[in-house]
Amino acid sequence: MIPASFTYTRAGSVKDALDLAAKHGEDAKFLAGGHSLLPLMKLRLAMPEILIDIGRIPALSYIEDRADHVAIGAMTRHHDLETSGLLARELPLLAHAAGQVGDPQVRHRGTIGGAIAHGDPASDLPAVIVALDATLVARGPAGERAIAAGEFFRSLFETALAPDELLTEIRVPKPASPGWSFQKFTKRAIDWAIVGVAVQGSSIALVNMGPAPLRAGATERALAGGASPREAAALAAEGTSPPADNNATAAYREHLARVLVRRALEEAGSRG
Amino acid sequence: MSILGTRVVRTEDPRLLTVGGTYVDDLRVPELENAAQVTFVRSPLAHARITGIDTSEARDEPGVVAVLTSRDLGEAAEAPEHAEAAEPEHVASDEELASSGEGGPGAIGGPFTEPTLAGDRVRFVGDAVAMVLTDGRYQGEDVAELVSVDYEPLPAVVGTEAALAGDTLLFPPAGTNVAATGGADAFDDSIFEGCEAVVEQTIVNQRVAPVPLEGRAAAAVWRDGKLTVWTSTQNAQIARATLADALKLEPAAIRVIAPDVGGGFGAKIGIDREVVAVARAAMRTGRPTRWVETRTENLVAMTHGRDQVQHIKIGGTRDGRVLAYRLGIDQDTGAYPRLGGFLPTLTSLMAVGAYDIPRAETAYRVLVTNTTPIAAYRGAGRPEATAAIERAIDLFAAEIGMDPAEVRRRNLVPPDKFPFKTASGAEYDTGRYAEALDTVLEAAGYADLRTEQARRRESNDPVQLGIGLSTYVEITAADATAGETARLAVHDDGSATVYTGSSAHGQGHRTAWAMLVQSELGIPMEQVTVVHGDTDLIPEGIGTYGSRSLQIGGSAVHKAAIEVKEEARRLAAEMLEASEDDLVLDTDSGQWQVRGDPAARLSWGQVAGHAGGDGLVASVEFKGDHATFPFGAHLAVVEVDTETGKVRYVRHVTVDDAGPVLNPVLAEGQRHGGIAQGAAQALLEEVRYDADGNPVTSNLADYAAITATELPSFELVTMETPTTLNPLGVKGIGEAGTIGATPAAQNAVVDAVAHLGIRHIDMPTTPERVWTAIMEAQKARGQ
Amino acid sequence: MKVTVTVNGTEVGAEVEDRMLLVHFLRDAAGLTATNVGCDTTSCGACTVLLDGESVKSCTVLAAQADGSEVTTVEGLSDANGEMHPVQRAFRQEHGLQCGFCTPGMVMAIVSLLRENPQPTEEQVRAGLEGNLCRCTGYHNIVKAALAAAGTDAG
Q: What value of ipTM does the predicted structure carry?
């Protein structure tokens, strides 16, 4: 299948990208690795008139140690996250989860910024950065602003980004508590998560348990109140609104959330 | 030493590995240089009346060659060579199309006739309504969106129960949704008299998608009264016959070429109606045409397989003897009863499987629904039979509390009973069924597996072990009497060419047929060219399906080689002035020699050079008298995470006995692929529709085609029991793996949770389905 | 727009639609038809090629995105003497292909996999092929071929 016609433009810099976005307004979409957008365009579920290719802006691809946090350029590919020595040391949850995205070919093209800006609740990395309390840096005509990951994801494919804003950097604080776990439950390895769980310390985020990545708030509070992982995990589905689809009913997703959160907490505990 | 039975790597591979195959989309022949791209406009509704089609906007787009509807395709052979499309609003009625003989290929027909393009009614999402011809590939999808079709929605019939209710009819003139019935008129409960234990179960053998990696494709050229069609088919000659019939052309006016074919699995037997439309469009417009379907199109409009609801009843004694078996089948055949209408007869024939069951009865109904048509898919009717009886045996074993291996052993047809006529009407040729079972149990370490299972049950391990068995027999070359052709020519340079009616789509015929020639004639296989899938070169033939190739097509090649050899003997005797009786062919060196006179030798080239006329050629047809019955035993091991229901497929051990193996490399490849497809049905794959008949598995992100990550490496054990029904002693191996694997994998999953009180889980055994079964069993036990 | 890609060491330039997919650039502009299209959803991997040395699915890359890059397809794997690449040889030796349609993509995926992990385990090979579908082989011999090419076939 073939995307509907569009005009392709390539941005050489962030400024260039923002100028193009300002010029074309709502008709334009940023193209990063293209592995979320192009499949939708081929199925004609998305039909932008202008694509602004930001995939080749060298200044947006980096992983840097900045003392209390790690800064990641938005166009850093999953493959680079997966194989980064710095991440393996400082943020193994993120490195591991990046290695679970799609398949090797997808990870050679797909970017962390693209995956986050797409706002798909079934996607792995949004929940991971929520669990890690990351800060997202966006640049727009009015300049730069920082958005907490927890505030960034609004709803299904809806984020805090304005159409003329570009996600440029993800700042991930170095975790205080080293225990981590990522549980991705699928029928086939290549599938999107039916349910996923990201745990860092006592911070827990859920994949595909609502229209946006969610914190397992009830479980986190129970843990803070001294509950055992098993007791706290039993509350994992509270406050969630999981979808029902071809892969699972909502009730089964709720059950999975409880099981996977328990396993994630146990695994994180064993690493802590 | 004969090359037969040795491991020979394929002659096909270097080309496929270095420059790739030449599939229909890859053809760069001059005749197709100017080909228009065909894009079908398909119904977005499962059931609707078409009240009008407006093609004007689409036609006015630049680069559009033609927009055609059902009305434009009638009497294409006589149509003028220009592209006038239908005026808006005029729609040909189904009745009109049916009465004009506008029938699709391979259908039951009559009131259930399938038009080439939909008339005034669409019957499934994906039903082809119109076709757009454009200069370029990318325009096609744009322009197809501009064809405006007015639909008046009708209630959708989804599932066999809705079809039987008959509130909505797909073909009102038929007066029913039941397209065919067969078997017992009424079931007779007296067959279960004397049974100490009886179990009944309704089993869903779900709908699956064949998903050959290359979808359907065709290209057509109409020039000087000759139609040339390249298409991705298993049967060029059948395709030609279908085209001749549909287009009212003489077969000689049609050349069908099957170039490289990227997998078929039964779904490319002959051709579908889209290929007829592509050919008609070429004739009507005078432009060459080419159509290559997208995967989404493939998943909604290529035929699906299986889709039976089975009602089984099995009874016997408490010491494990099965006395009676009943199989009732409701076959969902989708919107148009094509080959799907025939599959339940094979299921019924093979109902009792590998067992000596004294009393059996079967009955079936073929039902039309507003879903994609059903046809052959690897096994085609036989996997359904095996899945039912192998589940039945396990249910019976659970009922009487006996090890399922032991129940099987007590009921398998013993070796001294062959040929064996079953209670469901088949006549099995040869077999060592219990030996196959015991061989697999031994290879798998059955006793140790049961010990490990007991340990996990005892310790209440959240990850339980399941061991699944199936002992199967299947029917191959069911149409053995239809035969197959072969022509073998030896050339004066000593090389040879085989023209075979069989047609490969991955099996490796070129390698296998060349081995047969080398074995019989001593011409090195590197010097044997094998040609298939071209009706100008091979006008007569059947092609490849039903695991018939080696036993029928290969036997034909073997027969041709013997005829060539006898002719060569006569010629060589003449040349050497020796008696024919003294001439010996050394098949190691490929030399003719006179006994006792080492100096008197002739090469194949010399003999062929002497032949004159048409050269040294034999044209033969081989016909079998009777189908053959391969058999075997499969053992699958799975782990089930009882907290989530997720199944991990750990081991698969098999014996698949299809007689002597010509080339273990090829036979193992067939078994591997078969096991994977069979297990995929048990564990993962299912085509699903919502209540309105909308497909929800119409791309490969949603349809869970099995990947390397979900499969183990397979453990194959060899057993070779020849048949007496062909000179090679061989049976078919193409479908055996699939037939044996599905129930073994399904039984393994049920076995893993059997101690929780679970007797049956329908396929595919997805995590949620397994978890739900565990929950229900817990509830039933009051926990 | 004008797109130039170095395909198997040869520069190929063509005027193409902005929406042209890399796979069609390779098949139609470069005339290299080994790379196949097997799905619409980036699922099957039949179109896998190396883009600047790494495996990608060329149905999900615009030709425009590959402008100025280097692409290797299965046609470019053999060496200057026409000797097959070790992965190609292993596929033949282990019968890692039947119909051949998934094969070019499968071979390229494995070439990329072995570059990143020269001594993979069977489990790593299977995980590395999660994005490539084959319907003929049950993957058994493909996995064997990958391990054989890596010289780590433990049997």
A: 0.97
